[in-house]
Amino acid sequence: MLKESSGFLRFRQRHMKRFILVLLLSGLFVSAAAAQSTIFFVRHAEKAGSGGDDPDLSEAGRARAESLANTLKDAGLSAIFVTERKRTQQTAAPLAKMLHLDPAIVPAKDSAALIAKLRASSGNVLVVGHGNTIPDLIKSLGIATPIQIADSDYDNLFVLVLDEKPRLLRLHYR
Question: Residue 141 and residue 119: Cα distance in Å, rounded?
Answer without folding.
Answer: 8
